[in-house]
Amino acid sequence: MIELKHKNCFITGAASGIGRSFAIALAKEGMNLFITDIDMENLKKTKSEIESLGVRVYANKCDVSSFEDLECSANEFYSKLGSLDLLINNAGIVISGTLLELELEDWKKVLDVNLWSIIHSIKVFLPRMLERKSGHIVNVASAAGIFGSTEPLPYITSKFAVVGISEALFGRLRSYGINVSVIVPSYVRTDIFSNLNLKYPKKLLDAFGKEKLEEIYKSILNEMSGKAMHPDRAVKKYISGIKKNQLYIFDTRVSLTLLALKGKPQEFEEFLINYHKNSNNVSREQFLKFGINVDDYDLYQ
Ligand SMILES: NC(=O)c1ccc[n+]([C@@H]2O[C@H](COP(=O)([O-])OP(=O)(O)OC[C@H]3O[C@@H](n4cnc5c(N)ncnc54)[C@H](O)[C@@H]3O)[C@@H](O)[C@H]2O)c1
User: Fold this and answer.
1) pTM flag (> 0.90)
2) Catalytic member of 58, 155, 187, 238
3) 8 A C-beta contact, residue 188 and residue 18
4) Which of 78, 143, 242, 265 is spaced 20 to 30 Å from 131 by Cα?
């Protein structure tokens, strides 16, 4: 797909962050939009911003972890806009915590929203895309989906699967006229940093209480978010990749370097070990600012 003007797009998670920036940028390119989210209050705000750009826009409540919700929204989409040119599976969540703190329900929730959403969406939309022999599927993964960074494991697991399903579909669907891309964001300044659903390490919780830990983690997240890219800037790069029909769409060259490193297995193993050590050092330094030495608590198991 090269020309976006007058084409139709369905997007999930458009109430905030990358999804919101995507919807507005695509409207500026002249696309008609069907935007969805569970957060209707903010979705309506995205809708009114788009309305002022003179394209057709519809907003629908849709929980991507529910197949029925996606099926309903898809039917609504086809009745309003007729045909699908661009499908952006963007909605995603993080539940943060170390392996010991996270419960099985946390794993399930993250996999439901980040991975099953994409399976639901493909199941719902693909048959009609195949009939038309056209369309572009874009799945939003993460740099956490191309290398096993430190935490949280359910997020990393879900995003590796998103990369896998995207690669597999890319090869299979090309001869049917359907393009597939996978976006690999690095650090983008969005609400994902404030909605981390943090599970605090029990040993720290017992020693310092929830209020103190909230203060410390807020400071760590603020620092991370301050270094992150603005979503409008990131989305500009993503749209450029979509127009070129790229399979992988990155927003930093570091991700390419990481992929290349996998061609040198021993170096990659060392990198994984050092990456883990370094990120522990970053947390260690942040905690030290609050007079806490995390080494006394053996948290990173
Ligand atoms: N921000 C980053 O640094 C970053 C990095 C890598 C990957 N990503 C990915 O980018 C995508 C967008 O995240 P973001 O950073 O814009 O975060 P965000 O929190 O700003 O936006 C996510 C949106 O998804 C919606 N959502 C959550 N659960 C949902 C559900 N069950 N059904 C429908 N909508 C739901 C939220 O209401 C929100 O509007 C996610 O898939 C995320 O994993 C983000």
Assistant:
1) yes
2) 155
3) yes
4) 242
